[in-house]
Amino acid sequence: MTGDQPREIAVLGGGLAGLSLVLQLLDHGVKARITVVEPRHTYTDDRTWCFWDTEDHPFRHLIADRWPTWRVHDGTRAHRCTGTCAYARLSAGDVYAHALARIARAPNVHLWRGTRVQRLDGRRVQTDAGTLAADLVYDGRPPRLPETASGTRLLQQFVGRRIRSDRDVFDTSACELMDFRLPQRHGIAFLYVLPHSPREALVEATVFAATRLPAGRLDGLLDDALAQRLPSGVETLGSERGAIPMVPNLGERASGPGVIPIGTRAGAPRGSTGYAFLPIQRHSRALAARAARGTPGPVRMRGRITDWLDRVFLARLIARPDAAPDDFGRLFAGVPADRLVRFLMERGGPLDHLAVMTALPTGAFLRHAAAVSLPRALRPHPRQRAPVADADPDSPVPRS
C-alpha cells in the first residue's frame, strides 16, 4: 500500500549521512523540495572512510585505494590475510565534491550552509536562518551517547596524519589494520597504516577507552610510533582526528511523527568495530525507497542478532582489555578471510557467525554472552517495529 510522497523534506546535517540520503532520494525519484541544514560554511578533506568493497553504492567509483591483503599484528606475530573483496579507502573531499555537485544540479535541493538548528518542534525546524515547516524531517544531528542496559560502552579515539617520506618505506600491496605494538597504558591501542604509494600513507594511532583521552596523549602516541617505525625526512600532508562511539544499538527513536533519525543518531557505527560507511549507505537506500513509495518511516540500522553479538564482544573488551590483541589475532588467523569480511561488513550468515565465535576463547565468551542475556536481546521490542535496512525489499544486496 502506498501513499503520496512528501512535498517538503528537511535534512538536519549535511555530513555523510545527510548527503548520502539526499543522493538516494534523488535516485529514487523523490520530487519533494529538500532543504539540507548544515552548520559548516565550507567542506574540507577532513576524514577518511574505509570498508571492505563488498557492494555497490553512489560513491564506489571514487574509491582512492584498494588493498587485496591486510595485516594484523597481535604484538607477538603478524597475521596476513587475502580475501575476495579488497579493503578500500574513500577520501571525504572526493565524497563531498561529488555529492555537492549533484545537489547543485538538482533544482529541488537547497543546501543551507553555515546554518544551525536552534530547536526542533515536531516537524518545524527553527534555525538561525529562519523556520522550516516540513512534511518529513531526517535528523542527523550528533546524538547523546547513552549508557546501554548492559553497561557496555567504549569510545574509539584516533589521530591520523597523511605523511610523505623521502624514500620508499610502505608496502602498497597490503594495509595494516591493527598493529598492537604500542603501549597499552591508556586503553586498547594500535597503529593503523593505509599506504597510498611507496612514499605516502595515512598513519593513525587508535585507542579504545571508556573515557575521552586528551588530544596530546593521542598525538604523543602517534609521534612515538612514527619515530620508531619511519626514517627521518617525513613530511605531514594533512591530519584528521575523531571519536566514534562503540555502543550496541546506539540508535535513538524518532522524537515524534515524521521525524526520522539518520547517521550516528540512528546507530550507524557498529558497536564492536565503529564501521559506519556501508551501514549508512544501506540505511539511506532503504529510507529513500520508503519515501518514494509514499510510506516514509524509520528503518532499523541493523538486526538484533548483530546488536547482541556486539554487546558480547564489547563486554569482553571492557572486562579484558589486555586480551584484546590476542582476541583480534585469533579472529584474523582463525577465520577464513571472506567469512570474516562478511561478518565485519554485516553481510554474514549463521556459518560466518559460528566461525567467528569458535575462533575466540569459547568459555570466556560464553560467560559474557550469559551476562548480556541472549533471550532479552532477541525478544522483539513493542516500540521497534521498523524494518531493518538490510532487509529492505528494494535493496539489491543479497544476504550471505
From TrEMBL:
Classification via Pfam families: Lycopene_cycl
Domain of life: Bacteria
InterPro entries: FAD/NAD-bd_sf (IPR036188)
Chain spans, region Disordered: 377-400
Protein name, as recorded: Lycopene cyclase
Organism: Rhodovibrio sodomensis
